[in-house]
Structures are given as structure tokens and as C-alpha cells.
């Protein structure tokens, strides 16, 4: 594993190894030492969880972090190109973690530098470290990743977390329910890929009837910032609002996940239900990101 750019680049063996490693780090069975390593965090888009969990992940391993949070006050404001910027970070850090608004930016950066690059979200394309922490969360709550019934709910068109997640789960024989308004449906290229892989999925616009069958409900925010036309956002912004009253007949192992941040798609009255797992899910991100950093840095 030279870089981590897309879930499509990882096979099931590598995914399982990262999940095991995250568990070993969380339990204390493995205590990696990154005290001679520096992580360069480049966040060209806003982030709370991804940026801060990578930051604490590296520091808790003894490593150092240098950060560019937005471009204000940097030489990007003077016209420095992305390629030149990352070639400079290449001189200062041992690994680059990048979030960028352009799809394909992380792959492009990986071609400019000779240190590992981790995609922390590129436009509406992929968010592989989120998917890996999602898999770690599913494994912890279900004791397996195999043969699960999983509903992906909300913005399936622009949602990079769900795009990554369907590829991440491809090797585990899931049944997917893609639940979204027509305007935010899962992109056809992903459905084509799933067809080619022989995977089972159902495209739906309503959720209620399938809730009792689900192991996992993965809810996503309708992302205002991805809409070119604000009127289109207004039409779909309240498409799904999950309340505790909707979740009275669920399986014992049922969990709700959400990459967060949420706006109103999961009402706060869900937060105290036994199935609400989204805050613990965010916490799991620290261990998975430690596993990713360790795996990429130990090969240097
Ligand atoms: N889940 C996620 O990527 O959250 P942030 O945008 O806060 O990093």
C-alpha cells in the first residue's frame, strides 16, 4: 500500500489487515512509535472529525503534525500552484493527508510527491479513511462484515462517504438498499460497477418498510455545498428526518451510523437509543487512522 486514494485500490485482504491493526492499537496489543515521523495535513475544505482525528492519531503515536487549514495566509493566495505547494510539503513531512474540493486531487498529488498520500476526501468522489473506520465500526457492532443488510440513506449522488463504502463492502456479500430522492440517487457508474461485481442492491425512495430487516442504517447529510442551484437543495433538504418513533421495530443488532456532521436528518431524540452509534463511530476513526498511518509509514 503506497498511498490510500480510493477504496477501489484496496482488496479484502488489505481491508481486513487494517481492521485487525486498528483493533490491536485500540486494545493496546500494538503500540506503534511514530516519534521520528511528521504528518503534513492539507485541508482545502472544512473538516472537524477527519482533520482532528488524524491530528490526535499521529500525536498519540508520538509523531508530529504540520497543518495547512485552508489557504488563507499561505502562498496559494499569491498564486502558488497545487503541484508546487505539495512538492514543498514533500520536503517537510513524511506523509501527506489531504482534503480537497476537486475530485481526483489526491491522486494528482500522489503523482507529484515521493511520500505516501492519504485521501481525506476529494470533492464528491471518495473518502476512503471514513469507509475504513465505518467498516471497523460495523465489525465491532456486528462481529462480522459478512452478509449484512445495509441501507444507505440520504445524499447518494454527491456523498463521497457512501461512494467509498459500497466499494469497501463489496467483498463481504452485503444486501444494499439505496434510499434517496430521485435527484440524489446513487450514480449510474457505481450501479454499473455493482452489477459487474454481481452484487445485490435495491434502489428505493422510501425507508419505513425495510427498517425491521436492517442490520445497519447509514444516514448521510444532504450537502448544501454540492448544489449548483439553491432551489434544487430546497426541494430535497428535508427528504429524510429519522426520529426515535420510526425505530420501534428494529433488530437487536441494529445500528445507525452517520459520517457526520448532521443537520436534521437524524433527530436528537435518536441519540439515546441503543442503536445510535454515530458518536462512537467518530471515535473509532482515531484507531483506524493510526492503523493507516502506521501501515503507510513503516514501509518508508
Ligand atoms: N465525516 C467527516 O468527514 O467529517 P468532517 O467533514 O468533519 O471531517
Total number of β-strand segments? Answer: 9
Kindly estimate the percentage of residues that lie in beta strands according to DSSP: 15-25%
User: Which of globular, elongated, flat, extended, rod-shaped describes the shape?
Assistant: globular
Instruction: Write down the overall mean pLDDT.
Output: 96
CATH superfamily of the largest domain: Aspartate/ornithine carbamoyltransferase
Largest beta-sheet characterization? 5 strands, parallel
The CATH topology annotation of the largest domain reads as Rossmann fold
- Uncertain runs are none
User: Which H/E pattern describes the elements?
Assistant: HEHEHEHEHEHEHEEHEH
Bound ligands: phosphoric acid mono(formamide)ester
Based on CA atoms alone, the radius of gyration comes out at 19 Å
Tally of individual helices = 9
Chart the SSEs and their pairings.
Elements lengths: L11 H16 L10 E6 L5 H12 L3 E6 L12 H11 L2 E6 L4 H6 L6 E6 L5 H15 L6 E5 L6 H9 L6 E5 L8 H9 L3 E5 L11 E4 L10 H7 L18 E3 L20 H20 L3
Parallel strand pairs: 1-2, 1-3, 3-4, 5-6, 5-8, 6-7, 8-9
Helix pairs in contact: 1-5, 1-9, 2-9, 5-6, 5-9
Bound molecules: phosphoric acid mono(formamide)ester.
Structure report:
With 300 residues, this protein is α/β, with parallel strands linked by helices. The chain folds into two domains: 7-126 and 285-297, 3-Layer(aba) Sandwich (Rossmann fold), CATH 3.40.50.1370; 128-282, Aspartate/ornithine carbamoyltransferase (Rossmann fold). The chain is 35% helix and 15% strand. It has nine helices and nine strands. The strands form two sheets. It has a five-stranded parallel beta sheet, with helices on one face. It has a four-stranded parallel beta sheet with strand order 2-1-3-4, sandwiched between helices. Strand 8, helix 8 and strand 9 form a beta-alpha-beta unit. Helix 1 (12-27) crosses helix 9 and helix 5 (128-142) packs across helix 6. The radius of gyration is 19 Å and the shape is globular. It starts with 11 loop residues before the first helix and ends with a helix. Phosphoric acid mono(formamide)ester binds next to helix 2.
Amino acid at each position: 500500500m503506497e498511498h490510500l486514494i480510493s477504496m477501489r485500490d484496496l482488496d479484502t485482504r488489505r481491508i481486513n489487515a487494517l481492521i485487525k491493526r486498528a483493533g490491536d492499537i485500540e486494545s493496546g496489543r500494538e503500540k506503534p512509535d511514530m516519534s521520528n515521523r511528521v504528518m503534513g495535513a492539507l485541508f482545502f475544505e472544512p473538516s472537524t472529525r477527519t482533520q482532528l482525528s488524524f491530528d490526535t492519531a499521529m500525536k498519540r503515536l508520538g509523531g508530529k503534525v504540520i497543518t495547512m487549514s485552508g489557504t488563507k495566509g499561505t502562498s496559494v493566495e499569491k498564486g502558488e500552484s497545487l503541484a508546487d505547494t505539495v512538492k514543498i510539503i514533500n520536503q517537510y513531512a513524511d506523509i501527506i493527508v489531504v482534503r480537497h474540493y476537486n475530485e481526483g486531487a489526491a491522486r494528482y498529488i500522489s503523482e507529484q510527491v515521493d511520500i505516501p498520500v492519504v485521501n481525506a476526501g476529494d470533492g464528491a468522489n471518495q473518502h476512503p479513511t471514513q469507509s475504513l473506520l465505518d467498516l471497523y465500526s460495523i465489525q465491532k457492532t456486528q462481529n462480522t462484515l459478512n452478509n449484512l443488510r445495509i441501507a444507505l440513506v440520504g445524499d447518494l449522488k454527491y456523498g463521497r462517504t457512501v461512494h467509498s463504502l459500497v466499494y469497501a463492502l463489496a467483498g463481504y456479500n452485503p444486501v444494499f438498499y439505496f434510499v434517496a430522492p430521485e435527484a440524489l440517487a446513487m450514480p449510474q457508474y457505481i450501479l454499473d460497477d455493482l452489477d459487474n461485481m454481481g452484487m445485490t442492491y435495491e434502489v428505493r425512495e422510501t425507508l419505513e418498510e425495510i427498517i425491521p430487516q436492517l442490520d445497519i442504517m447509514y444516514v448521510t447529510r444532504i450537502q448544501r455545498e454540492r448544489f449548483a442551484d439553491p432551489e434544487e437543495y430546497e426541494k430535497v433538504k428535508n427528504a429524510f428526518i429519522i426520529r426515535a418513533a420510526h425505530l420501534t421495530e428494529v433488530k437487536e443488532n441494529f445500528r445507525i451510523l452517520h459520517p457526520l456532521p448532521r443537520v436534521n436528518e437524524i433527530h436528537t431524540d435518536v441519540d439515546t437509543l441503543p442503536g445510535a452509534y454515530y458518536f462512537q463511530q467518530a471515535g473509532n476513526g482515531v484507531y483506524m487512522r493510526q492503523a493507516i498511518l502506521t501501515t503507510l509509514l513503516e514501509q518508508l
